[in-house]
Amino acid sequence: MGFKCGIVGLPNVGKSTLFNALTETAQAQAANYPFCTIEPNLGQVAVPDPRLSRLSELAKSAEVIPTQLTFVDIAGLVRGASKGEGLGNQFLHNIREVDAIVHVLRCFEDSDVTHVDGKIDPVADAETVETELMLADLDSLERRVDPLVKKVRGGDKTAAAALKLMERALELLRDGKPARLLERSEAEEKAFGELQLLTAKPVLYACNVDEDSAATGNDYSKLVEERAKTEGAESVVICAAIEAEIAQLDDREERAAFLADLGLEETGLSRIINAGYRLLGLITFFTAGPKESRAWTIRRGTAAAQAAGTIHTDFERGFIRAETIGYDDYIASGGEAGAKDAGRMRLEGREYVVHDGDVLHFRFNA
Fold first, then answer.
1. What CA–CA distance (Å, rounded) separates 211 from 213?
2. Which of these, 91, 241, 254, 274, has the minimum number of CB atoms within 10 Å of its CB?
3. Helix/strand/coil for 211
4. Are 69 and 44 in contact (CB under 8 A)?
């Protein structure tokens, strides 16, 4: 699996410009007026991971296959979206389909680019979008309460548990807090997910700053960072204009030099991916051999058998063992053969919890 991020925000905050730059395409029309993006544009990008290149060199792989990240550029939201204003209904539907929300916030001054509210206030912008999502969740839950109450009266224990969870979520939302802040047990996670609440989605705030603030951020982005910390979200500083320039550079060394001149160590894409992986609790494992070296994304805490299932369901069903080499051991030993000779290969069972960077070869019965 990779993961799917919905790029959201108010009109004219730089969503489509950022989408175009991150996906290195011009699929989304970027223009200085609301609702430029009507249908959600999809873009897949390879997740940059220098470890994969190093593994492929040692394994002498004929093909290198990185894991993929999907960006969805979703139409700009306005107040009243929860009631269908603007493109509200479509906006809300598209958010339900993503794993995480990348909320682009305008953190730059520019008199040539209008703001829907006529002022620059990224925290207020974040609250506008969050409020509309909370209102939509409230409406969704309230419509489901009465049918559940009837089932509970009929002695349905599953409905009773669901109703209690729903009532706790409603209490939180009515208090002006997103559903993702609801304290819940591990046993409740599945039922909570089935509620399909918009504010349950993990949020990554992308502070779109001017070029001079790209390396250090500014007062606006610092306010967003403080907000993110209070709600367990992530925030990154990014300059959509710079990312658009980087997207035009094909040479890797030229990109690196361009970034260095601006005081940056990595692209905005890399920062968003790293923050997204932390937010969603994702890690990467690798398979490497003469045919191909490939990166695979899984949830942190995934057992070996389930990790094998991300490659093919037969691998999980007939799992025997996982021949496992840590990334550092693989590199230090000069590849698989060297790791075996050095005693760095381990045979792990189906319950082994995969670690980030593990190089795995699965044995299974067909």
1. 5
2. 254
3. helix
4. yes
In DSSP notation, 315-351 reads HHHTEEEEEEE-HHHHHHTTSHHHHHHTT--EEE-TT
Say whether 239 sits in a helix, a strand or coil. coil
List the one residue out of 30, 3, 2, 7 whose CA is nearest residue 238: 7
DSSP state letters, 121-157: -HHHHHHHHHHHHHHHHHHHHHHHHHHHHHHHHTT-H
Query: How deeply is 101 buried, as exposed, middle or buried, from its count of CB atoms within 10 A (0-12, 13-18, 19+)?
Result: buried
Distance CA(121)–CA(223), nearest Å, equals 10
Per-residue tens of pLDDT for the chain, all 366 residues: 557 888 888 877 888 888 888 777 444 334 444 444 445 578 888 888 899 999 999 999 999 999 888 888 886 665 554 455 444 456 677 788 888 999 999 998 877 665 666 678 999 999 988 888 899 899 999 999 999 999 998 888 888 988 999 999 999 999 999 999 999 998 899 999 999 999 999 999 999 999 999 999 999 999 999 999 988 889 999 998 898 888 888 787 888 899 899 888 888 888 888 888 888 899 999 999 999 999 999 999 999 999 999 999 999 999 999 999 999 999 999 999 999 999 999 999 999 999 999 999 999 987
Our measurement of the distance from residue 38's CA atom to the centroid of its chain's CA atoms, rounded to an integer in Å, reads: 22
Q: Which pTM value belongs to this model?
A: 0.82
Structure tokens at 4: 């799917």
**Pairing between strand 319-325 and 346-348?**
antiparallel
Q: Who's near 121: CB < 8 A, 6+ residues apart?
A: none
Which residues face 176 on adjacent strands? Answer: none
- Indicate the DSSP class of residue 360: E
